[in-house]
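the two lines:
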Amino acid sequence: MRPMLEEAVGEIYRNLLPEKMVVADLGCSSGPNTLVVLSEVIKIISNQCLRVGQQPPEMQFFLNDLRNNDFNNLFRSLDHVEQRLRVGKGTISVPYFVAGLPGSFYGGLFPRHSVHFFHSSYSLMWISQEQFHRDFSHFLKLRFDELVPCGQMVLSFLGRNKKDKLDGEMSTIYGLLAEALDSMVREGLVEEEKFDTFNLPLFVPSSKEVEVIVKLQGLYDIIHFQTFESNLDPFDDDLDDNVVLDNVQSGANCAKVIRSVFEPMIANHFGSAIVDDLFSRYATNVAKHLLKEKLMLPVLALSLKKKEVT
Amino acid sequence: MRPMLEEAVGEIYRNLLPEKMVVADLGCSSGPNTLVVLSEVIKIISNQCLRVGQQPPEMQFFLNDLRNNDFNNLFRSLDHVEQRLRVGKGTISVPYFVAGLPGSFYGGLFPRHSVHFFHSSYSLMWISQEQFHRDFSHFLKLRFDELVPCGQMVLSFLGRNKKDKLDGEMSTIYGLLAEALDSMVREGLVEEEKFDTFNLPLFVPSSKEVEVIVKLQGLYDIIHFQTFESNLDPFDDDLDDNVVLDNVQSGANCAKVIRSVFEPMIANHFGSAIVDDLFSRYATNVAKHLLKEKLMLPVLALSLKKKEVT
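prediction for all of em together
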């Protein structure tokens, strides 16, 4: 992701040399990842300006998520951006301003032609192929209107690298969650009927399916398109393929990721009272699985550039 | 305040006919007042556009307050804006977007020349004459850099209309608070020593003192300057000077206002444990006082226009 981000942000800067640059992170959640992106973008701009000997632009960041996102927590953690930036060597000071923007990215979020760069990481998600087609097209159209000419986007989301939609890693992840639920049914903590009527819908598109939509729509040039395997544990930087140093900690990390995705659906179906217990059991199941192999997820990452209308 | 807001926003629109208009409310807190301003500005723009037969601009609102403000609550209440706007007759639909902007307005909040209109109501406050001079000048300079050419501000804050700084309504308000604290000392809920060493600093400037600073700085033209008496109870719309219909409810309303101003200082000195009890006693004291007379506060309201640099 880092090189894609670097190329996109760098190119926008070199093409436009803006005095003011607007960047939006869509579906930012309230976790630390948002702030990583923010500080990466600042560093990229800082390096660019050093290289070409230009004054840095003033950066305006918008952190977007649904209205019920914990923006208070997000704002409190903004101090960490300062810390991150101070660590970087050889950077120049880039003036930046950060706003929170509540609302769905399936609606308009910005005035026309007002955003230079959109970023979205693991926040685009679909429950069926039909919904994927409709909503992804709609998303691309909305952002097209909001981007300045020469504006770009870098998107990443869960995908699949096998043709069979039921095969692959997602089914392992689902299986471990089903096991956790099943143990709660056996202990009488979850009603059997509720368990039987539960369905966790998630559609993960292939790179081909994504490409077809972008090309059919004709609003963007695809600059890069990558498919890679991402560790479900975002803190496991170990490149050794199948050794997990601390399987208990890593299981807990994985459970957090999955919880952030599925908690709303689970709470909606079973009630929120079971959620803590469920994901604690899930973390244990994942930890056991990690003794055998790491959980890797196929991720699609693409950078898109707004087409010039001639 | 309404006519001042109307004139300022209307003039900016007519002068610039912007396709996109940026409005910031500084020190918005998380209460309903912020949303009143937001919907008023939208209505004003809507009326202007109807009058001149123009398409409305896209409005981008920034709601600013300190990082510890409850932005979650503020964002949740955004639905009320829709309700407010639907009630208005003869309006056209104005596209608008709302962001939260955490940070002190004694620092930079926006890129240069990016804001059309600043609004700030009861959020500018000073603890001494010296601080007033320094901070108010600094505030005006920061906003000058952030305003577009022909940009305007409407500010209102507590003032005084008597020369003697210790006279007038503020001393009544302080007195009733001191009474409440005193009763807690007598019941052993507050240490006498803490009470004796407590000092509630608040400097309220006269209109002359404000005018001197603005003119000395030379960055703005003063379009309007009003001094008026504002009821401490924001929900008391009754114009009959000295009849309070429900003195208990009105006392509670007044206590809320004063609490929003002084809670941080009180919690800092006495600990947050006493705050609920203290303001409940204070509400009772105010309710008793309201049987004699309403509590009216002198308020200064001014609209400023960025000077054109020639």
